[in-house]
Amino acid sequence: MAEWAHLIASDVLAAPHGFLTGPQSDRRELDRVGGELPTVWLNQVHSARVVCVSEPYFDDARPDADALVTATSGLRLAIVTADCAPVLLEDRQARVIGAAHAGWRGAHGGVLENTVAAMVELGATPANIIAAIGPCIAQESYEVDEGFRRQFTDEDSQFFKPGRAGHYQFDLEGYAAWRLFLAGVGLTDRLSIDTYAYEADFHSYRRSTHRGTRSDGRQVSLIALD
Asked: CA 111 to CA 113: how far, in whole Å?
C-alpha cells in the first residue's frame, strides 16, 4: 500500500486511482487522480445495480445504482462511502475499469459479481481483473444481531465472529473479497483500514450514529481510464 497526505492507493492497480480520506479532503483533490478528467457520479441506493458509462451525467440525471464500469478513455469513476466498502477494479489488458459501493446489502445482493459481469461485457476477462478494497468498517467495529446473521448462509459463517450475547462481529471486507473471488477476479488487494477506528481520517456512519452526531460525511474513491 502506498500512502500520501489525504490519499491512499493500492500497489496492485495500475490505473490512476485513489481513496481520499474524509474530513481533510475536498473535491479539489479529485484531480490528483487522473488530472482534470470529467468525473462520473451515481445516486447510490445500496443496490446491486451496475451501469456502463461512456460520458458524465448531469447532477440531476445521475442513475440510481451502486457500481459503474467503463471502457471509455478520459473518464474518472467515483463512488462515496462512510463504512461501506469502496471497491476499485481494472483489467489493464482490456482497458476496462469499474468502481463499486459494496455495503452489506449490495455485496449480499451481488453488486460485485454484477460489476465483474458488466466489465466482461466490455471485453474484460475475470482472471485478468484486479480489485482493491479500500477503507471500510472492520470486523472489530461492526456488531450485528441475530436477524442480520440469519440473512446469510451457513457457508458465510466464516465472516461472523461471536460477540456479546445474541450478537456477532461481521467481516465486511472479507465478505467482499470472497464475493470477488467467487466472481473469478484474479487478484484482490485488501487495504484493511477501519473507517470506524480512525476518526482523524475517515467519516463513519456507524460512529456518528453511536454518538448521535451528523452522519452525512463521506469519503470519495476514484479510478480513471486515461
From this structure: 6
Q: Which H helix or E strand runs over 114?
A: helix 111-121
Per-residue model confidence as pLDDT tens digits over 105-142: 999 999 999 999 999 999 999 999 999 999 999 999 99
pLDDT per position as a tens digit, 167-177: 999 999 999 99
CA distance 159 to 174: 7
Spell out the residues 6+ positions from residue 79 whose beta carbon is closer than 8 angstroms to its own: 42, 44, 66, 67, 68, 86, 99, 100, 101, 220, 221
Q: Looking at domain 2-138+173-221, does it have CATH number 3.40.50.1400?
A: no
pTM of this prediction exceeds 0.85 = yes
> Mapping DSSP to helix (H, G, I), strand (E, B) and coil, where does residue 85 land?
strand
| Bridge pairing between strands 67-70 and 219-225 | unpaired
What is the overall mean pLDDT for the chain?
Answer: 93
Judge whether 20 and 7 are in contact, CB under 8 Å.
yes
